[in-house]
Amino acid sequence: MKLIVICNPGCGKQKLSKHKDLIVSTLSEKHDVTYVESKSLEDLKALVSDASKEYECIVICGGDGTFHHCMNSLRDFKGYLGYIPAGTSCDMGKNLNTSKNVKKALKVILNGTTKKRKSLHINDLKVSYVLASGKFVATSYQTGRKLKKLGKFVYLFKCIPEIFRRYKLNVKIDGTPYRAKIVCILNSRCVFGCTFRHCDNEVLIIRKHPLLTMVRILLTKKVKTTKWMDVISLDGKKLEFDFDTWSVDGEKMILPKEFECNGVYEEFDFIVGK
Questions:
Q1: Exposure pattern of 181-192 as b/e (b: 16+ CB <10 Å)?
Q2: HSE of 224, CA atoms in CB hemisphere, 13 A
Q3: Quick one: pLDDT band at residue 262, thresholds 50, 70, 90?
Q4: Which of 3, 117, 165, 238 has the CB geometry, 3.0–4.6 Å to 57, for a possible disulfide?
Q5: Could you give the CA distance from residue 258 to residue 125 in angstroms, rounded to a whole number?
Q6: Which residue has the higher pLDDT, 165 or 181?
Q7: Rounded to whole angstroms, how far apart are CA atoms 116 and 271?
Q8: At residue 266, what are phi and psi to the nearest 5 degrees?
Q9: pLDDT digit string, tens, across residues 109-154
């Protein structure tokens, strides 16, 4: 198979350039391999756009933000997608049942199975796993790259000032109003660094006690409606907000204050762990 590895060398704690020879030699056992490293975000997007027209398999090497930008740069791609997670948290790696250990991730690409996975479309934007706003959410994009290299526990320290900040997010879903501290639109079973038993295609509205609610979710791994939280199916809903700043797959973005979730998805074939 004609395969290209597109690597963002500045992600996470790993110096990915050190693994170039390992990546190329391992994947060359079964594939015709090309390896490239991006020099900037625009370069990354251009590499993916060009590769989607030429290669049968694209292997993304980087963090969740890299994964997001790569997915949004694909152009009519009908081949296979692999992922070598290399960021701080790498929720997408957990979703695809692969490892941050490069050798293990390479084994998944060589010996894994293929699975179709949908990306949620918000207007022209593909959301790989989560779109979120509110308390604690901004730490994902406000934490600098140098701090991220210290590991995901940096996020916990960055969250401390958020405990004392007030958030009032007003949301309408099909005309029904909600007041929230945190709003998440989920296209994933893994988010916040934790894998849940069920957490997919839903709007999660945390109305009260966000810290306690988040701890409860992380400990029980359950996402369900409670007296502090609403979990609402996403399909066919019209959503309205009084805010426009979001974390999309960990990246800060400004989005329209209204959009409809009418079941528009795009399916891709991923190579995942067995």
A1: bbbbbbbbbbbb
A2: 5
A3: low
A4: 3
A5: 14
A6: 181
A7: 9
A8: -130, 130
A9: 999 999 998 888 877 788 888 889 988 787 766 555 554 554 555 5
